[in-house]
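User: Structure please.
Assistant: Input sequence and predicted structure:
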Amino acid sequence: MRRITRIATVGIASAALALSATACGGKKSSDSTTSSSSSGSSEGTAAIAYDIGGRGDQSFNDAAFAGLEKAEKELKVKGAEAEPTDGEGEADKVQRLTELARKGNNPVIGVGFAYGPAIKKVAPKFPNTTFGIIDDTSVQDKNVANLVFNEEQGSYLAGVAAAKVSKTGTVGFIGGVEVPLIKKFQAGFEQGVKDTNPNAKVLATYLTQPPNFDGFAKPDLGKAAAQGQIDAGGADVVYAAAGLAGSGAIEAASAKGKWAIGVDSDQYNQAGLSKYKNAILTSVTKDVSDSVYDLIKSVKDGKPTTGEIRYGLDKDGVGLADSNPEYKKMTDVIAAVEKAKADIIAKKITVKTTP
């Protein structure tokens, strides 16, 4: 069991620079940094600073934690975790990253592009520390690694699957917050649906608009949106790219006897969603775990990776989970998904990044 200590962080609210979008927010917020590392460790230390809500979202943040946990076990690296605060702004992130770097953690990884402006300020002050940022390419520096994904490609496969299993010809997309990153999920999904069934209808709903990022953190919002798409719109498959709010959509689909498609992690296998797992047809996965692990390993090996590191279907950086036994029985669906995957990798299909 890891030793846990808590260090207070500063909470400075700034609505204009509030937490930014990722496909995955979290369920809770804390004004603390959780650490199992010490700057004097001979084993090396690594840190991740979580996006909205922190660890426990059954999705994006938990995937990042899995990468840190793997590094702890396999590389004997000590890990530190830093939680966000409610309604925080850029100054909070700057303070958090600065604290992690000062304590000797290397690398320091910001989970989500909300950390872009903060890493741009902090990285130059710690030239011997490698900073990683997930879902962002705007920050370019010699000691910054940009861990990015082709979310639209995985979402295209989800669209193929949704169109194949839908009996009503209507499916739903729920985005947590209407920002460019989540638009990539929508674009790929809609294209996959339409390429599979041109007559299909896709209902698209966004839970909140920036600077309100509750759409990544409140399950009740996802639940209500899914219920509306199912009851009023006739959708029988719902795909939510909305972090913790997406769990509400999964719950609603389960209650209505409809299919849900998860995001970021293989949500069929998430303990927190076990009550609804039979309704989770599949999940669009992003290999956030390995991206975190690989960066930590590169630093541990003395050859830190920097610059843009992109994960797509060609490298299994994104994909479609097949954990649900019912999905595995759908041989025609699987065949269609595999063909689409091969065509995307072969560049026969170019997936859009905007709807």
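The longest helix spans residues 180-196.
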